[in-house]
Amino acid sequence: MPQFETLIHSRSSVTIDQAHKLRELVADWQLLSDLSFADLILWVPIRKDMKMWPTGHVAVAHIRPTTAATVFTNDVIGDEVMWGNRPRIDSALSSGEIVRDSEAEQVGELMIKEEAIPVVFDGQVIAVITRHRNAELMRSPSRLELNYREIAHSLYRMVSEGFFPYKDAGSLFEPVPRVGDGLIRLDVNGVISYASPNARSAFSRMGWKSEIENNKLGEVAEAVAKNSPNPHEEGIRTRLNGKTLRRVDIDNQGATIDLLVLPLLQGEDRIGAIVLLQNVTELRRRDRELVTKDATIREIHHRVKNNLQTVSALLRLQARRIEDPSASSALNEAVRRIASIALVHDTLSTSSENEVAFDEVLTSLITHALELNPRMGELRIERKGELGSLESRLATPLSLVVTELMHNALEHGLAEQGSVLTIELSRYSNECVINITDDGVGLPKDFDLATSSNLGLQIVRTLTENELKGVLKLQSTDSGTQANLRFPL
């Protein structure tokens, strides 16, 4: 909400905590708009200091209902009114009281009723909501509309008393079921006093055959839920009694319903609750399919890793039987490369994401490289920095590139005693940089990576350019050789 943030901080004196409260309100107020069939506008007072009297108000947010036509064709965000020009907003801000149903006023072709609701935080009015409704639509309300309005009045009172948005709601409101998906109204005892047509249909699909009104919601839900309750969880009746803010799924073989329980408060007293509900049968089915798909993919990675290890073991056996040193060395290099790929698949097989914790892979690559080197006790590899998680499409070729560069340095670029190979890792917003530095004699004067006949370096160059879309440079330094690898994220 860049415009929202800019307006409240540039035109008003709200504190960081107050701004956070307003953000929470704007995140949840579609519910208020839909229940009252009204456009809502959030106004903050224009002043440089909280101790100063406001010079006016600026509109910082605007929401339109999904249950009725909007009364504003144009956005009003950014509009400013001087103090005295909108008495209802002034009165709500200064008195902390809701300024209710005024006489309808002509706005374009419509007769609009406006109300003003103070937004209270820590006992102080920090903003005002204006509610704008088409007066013509209010003359002969249905039972649904009457219930929605009564609920809306309760919620607006909670706004003026500082109880809405709910404290510590966290992720319970993500995402919020829409009013039109289904709404149930509970009395103080958890008995259903009203259920919208969509709410009744949802429970009918779950197998409830009779009218749900005048029954306790917890008992109705318990009767239709066929899943075995978790012994470590509260029972469905307790979770759906309307006393606390809760989010509950009930399911059976036929359907799944997501319920969000919102207690209604008046002062310190609980006067009932509303329950927003949504039939999420298809969503949960897709979730289960995704979980199954993820498990299948992880199993595939696990089997690929096992198969690669089998191939590696066979090549190692073959290398031991070959008397030609060059042929044996070539097979051992193939074993090393296969092991690098197997490490990536091993990491993917235990990850729930299609990403690889590359720093863990690198640790294994370093250990493996030292174990395979005949000068193991004389060598040391130091690493600095981290790369974090990388997509698997990058991790596999990168593991091969790093393996080849490490082994090339261990084989050709280190001094005899106390040798140190340094690996420096840097990750930026759009690229990664890896420097591998040895303390050897450096590169030959006529060395050219593009024309080098070394198979390992040819593999490195090909993978860097084609798979990583990066750049590799090998250069002599005062103390040895450095390989500089850069690739974009």
TrEMBL record:
Pfam family, one: GAF_PdtaS
Keyword terms: ATP-binding, Kinase, Nucleotide-binding, Phosphoprotein, Transferase
Histidine kinase domain span: 299-489
Enzyme superclass (EC): transferase
Membrane listed as a keyword: no
Coiled-coil regions, chain positions: none
UniProt source species: Candidatus Planktophila vernalis
EC number: 2.7.13.3
Catalytic activity: ATP + protein L-histidine = ADP + protein N-phospho-L-histidine
Protein's name according to its UniProt entry: histidine kinase
